[in-house]
Amino acid sequence: MNPSILIFDSGVGGLSILQEIRQRLPGADLHYLMDNAFFPYGVKADDVLVQRIVDVCSAAVADVRPDLLVVACNTASTLALHALRNVLTVPVVGVVPAIKVAAGLTSSGHIGLLATPATVNRPYTDRLVEDFAAHCTVHRFGSAELVLWAETFLNTGTVDAKLTPHLQRWIDQQPQMLHVVLGCTHFPLLRDALEQRWPQIQWIDSGAAIARRVETLLAGRGLEARHGILNCRWTGADDGAQGALRFLQALGTVQQASVLSVGNPIQQPSAV
Ligand code: DGL
Question: Does residue 136 carry a catalytic annotation?
Fold first, then answer.
């Protein structure tokens, strides 16, 4: 039987991870789950977010019964992996900023971290920096705008004109950063636009490493050339899922596409 993988994000960002997994394990059944009712995660209070992530993932795991859950969201992973592993029996793979990779590649010792405002400020991120980049200066930039622009890009194909002025001053700082970690799964969706504007920079994301980790955990299952099925579930308005559906349809046939009902009602999100 094909292994089945549930891939979760607040919005379309996790598709950048799904794409890598599809490429590496074409025979795996992939279920994409987006919490668009609660999007965006990166500006919400931690306590509200942990509960919401646990509720949504628990509901989806009970429904899909996957072999593995991939939390394809740095904002969720740097906060809620522990809580998820406490309540779920299925293995949980998290996606966290690839600080270690960037620290291994830099010769200047200056690396960038581009992520959501929540992720750049997390104790989990501080620990990654201490453990793997203590010899570096890590320049952090928290952007909620880039998340929205990645959603717009996936839905319309248009890159927001504010992208360049938004990042230019940060990128221009001296000494120059030549390695920047894309610490939000939405950002690799804007990779072409970033590379075009700042070709001197190596943009580093976690997608390929996550796909390799999933392959290891599934111990060789999912390698068949025959494509596994694709499904899509979301929590909010159908409109918000159209871009994700188009993206998935370009990868293969989407068998099931429907709203996931989450047991607990949505609590009013509070801004941090
Ligand atoms: N894609 C998510 C991440 O990797 C965050 C997007 C959001 O703010 O909801 O952090």
Answer: no
Per-residue pLDDT reduced to its tens digit, 207-247: 999 999 999 999 877 677 788 999 999 999 998 899 999 99
Closest-lying ligand 1 atom to the alpha carbon of residue 76? 10
Question: What's the CA gap between 236 and 241, in Å, rounded?
Answer: 8
Fold of 4-95+208-259: Rossmann fold (3.40.50)
Query: Could you confirm whether domain 99-205 is CATH 3.40.50.1860?
Result: yes
Asked if residue 119 has its Cβ within 6 Å of ligand 1, the reply is yes
Q: Is the pTM of this model over 0.70?
A: yes
Contact at 8 Å (CB) between 181 and 209? no
Compute the distance from residue 115 Cα to the ligand 1 centre, in Å: 8
Is 39 near ligand 1, meaning CB less than 6 Å away? yes
